[in-house]
Design goal:
Elements (H helix, E strand, L loop, with lengths): L5 E6 L4 H11 L6 E7 L5 H8 L4 E3 L8 H14 L4 E4 L8 H7 L3 E5 L11 H7 L4 E8 L9 E8 L6 H25 L2 E4 L2 E4 L2 E2 L4 E3 L5 E2 L1
Parallel strand pairs: 1-2, 1-4, 2-3, 4-5, 7-11
Antiparallel strand pairs: 5-6, 6-7, 8-9, 9-10, 11-12
Helix pairs in contact: 1-6, 3-4, 5-6
The structure holds 5-O-phosphono-beta-D-ribofuranosylamine.
């Protein structure tokens, strides 16, 4: 898959990661165009961020669809209309259904606040603390049928401190997540990244472990 130019971002809430992408594009650090922002929540603050940046946005409220499959079919159509090269799920709180997967398999990446494969699903900060982990982080993975279960492309790691609670940990991870999202999208503009089944290939070579975000903001194995 190369080169990535048009990127669609799916959100449900605050959209701080969307903002990080917008800021990176504005600063000339990221050579993409956000062609569409889609929210499944009508009053998601992230929609205002898109409007402020002059980015086209759409709302597709899952509650207005009687069947889950109808929402998924409508979402697939809405996404397809923009012909994105890459779709970034940044705080999109819906499970992606078959119609969307069929249309965008290998082109969708999700941001998850945990060092996958640890802690799929919600409450990741509390779970990491309760397990006594000494590190936490965020992952960007390809979206598959399995919730937070697709191949992981990139991660950022932060240390857990003795006095951390879920809120302090989330607050410390958040700016690093923003860097991870920007670095990962940028990676797609520089490399041919493909995901078939369980493996990721970068410029033709299978990756054995996720790329890690370095202090200089770059991704390295
Ligand atoms: C992030 O913490 C992300 O890891 C999770 O949802 C949050 C989204 O935050 N999937 P925002 O809406 O981008 O501010």
């Amino acid at each position: 898959m190369s080169p990535v130019r048009n990127v669609t971002v799916l959100i449900s809430g605050t959209g701080s990661n969307l903002q990080a992408i917008i800021d990176a594009v504005d600063a000339g650090r990221l050579d993409i165009r956000i062609n569409h922002v889609i929210s499944n929540v009508a009053d998601a603050p992230g929609l205002q961020r898109a409007a402020n940046a002059g980015i086209r946005s759409s709302v597709l409220e899952h509650g207005r669809f009687a069947e889950r499959g109808d929402f998924d079919a409508a979402l697939a159509l809405l996404m397809a209309a923009g012909e994105p090269d890459l779709v970034v799920l940044a705080g999109f709180m819906r499970i992606i259904g078959e119609p969307v997967l069929n249309a965008f398999r290998g082109k969708m990446i999700n941001l998850h606040p945990a060092l996958l494969p640890k802690y799929r699903g919600v409450d990741t900060y509390r779970r990491a603390l309760e397990a006594g982990d000494d590190r936490h982080g965020a992952s960007m993975h390809f979206v598959t049928e399995e919730l937070d279960g697709g191949p992981v492309l990139s991660q950022v790691v932060i240390p857990i401190q003795a006095d951390d609670n879920p809120e302090t940990l989330a607050a410390r991870l958040s700016p690093r997540e923003h860097e991870l999202v920007v670095a990962t999208v940028a990676f797609f503009t520089r490399h041919d990244v493909a995901c078939d089944g369980g493996t990721i290939r970068v410029d033709g070579a299978t990756i054995r472990q996720p790329f890690l975000l370095q202090p200089d903001g770059a991704l390295h194995v």
